[in-house]
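Customer escalation, tier 2.

The customer says the design service returned an amino acid string that "doesn't look like it belongs to this structure." They asked us to rerun it and document both sides in this ticket. The original structure tokens are below, unchanged.
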């Protein structure tokens, strides 16, 4: 089989370029690429911006689906002893005109379901998997992306219309359910103390009066709002 093809790599990160090159330039890897292009009837390569068109193409194959395509990707990755952070690299090498910048990550986020209750999102754990080539800046980027996904996911879950639009556009974020840290985090100890004073039987007025004057950062109405807000977070 002709292995004289060059897979284009578009990244300014020299470390990433090196890691990708050591996989995609292997003659055996190119053999796999050509075999899978034939199997999945990829007669012409897709542009990176046309990912959904590629996705639809895979789904349209008779008796074939996305899951079986990903199994082929896993087979290649395993054959070359690579970790899941290379999955997207392999996909782009097979089906696209280039491997764009940002596709390869030297560390990656992994969702870990609870073995006894794998369908329960609330019990999911999240880990950043590092590789020998991981740098501190790489970890920071993955963490930042994770935080961004959480923020988007929370917004989608709170607004039915936003959720519907996200699902329709394949942009739904299956983020974890959690209570975001309040912006007024400096007041959390104060608010907790007020909550427990009120819970113990003191009126809002008494809670406010029991607060030393030099610590009264809120009036009576502020005390009420703080206690109610704290209680709401416990639901």
């Amino acid at each position: 089989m002709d292995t004289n093809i060059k897979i284009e790599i578009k990244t300014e990160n020299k470390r990433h370029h090196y890691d990708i090159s050591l996989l995609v330039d292997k003659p055996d890897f190119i053999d796999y690429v050509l075999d899978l292009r034939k199997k999945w009837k990829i007669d012409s390569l897709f542009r990176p911006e046309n990912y959904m068109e590629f996705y639809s193409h895979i789904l349209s194959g008779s008796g074939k689906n996305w899951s079986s395509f990903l199994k082929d990707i896993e087979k290649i990755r395993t054959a070359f002893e690579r970790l899941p952070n290379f999955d997207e690299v392999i996909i782009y090498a097979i089906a696209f005109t280039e491997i764009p910048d940002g596709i390869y990550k030297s560390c990656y986020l992994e969702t870990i379901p609870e073995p006894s209750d794998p369908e329960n999102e609330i019990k999911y754990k999240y880990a950043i998997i590092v590789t020998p080539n991981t740098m501190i800046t790489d970890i920071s980027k993955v963490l930042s992306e994770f935080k961004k996904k959480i923020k988007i996911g929370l917004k989608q879950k709170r607004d039915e219309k936003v959720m519907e639009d996200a699902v329709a556009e394949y942009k739904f974020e299956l983020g974890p359910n959690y209570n975001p840290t309040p912006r007024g985090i400096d007041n959390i100890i104060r608010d907790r103390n007020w909550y427990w004073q009120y819970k113990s039987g003191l009126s809002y007025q008494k809670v406010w009066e029991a607060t030393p004057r030099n610590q009264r950062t809120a009036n009576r109405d502020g005390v009420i709002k703080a206690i109610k807000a704290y209680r709401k977070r416990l639901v």
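Tier 2 assessment: The sequence is consistent with the input. Residues 169-173 have pLDDT under 50 and may be disordered. The beta strands are 107-112, 125-130. Sent an explanation to the customer and offered a walkthrough call.
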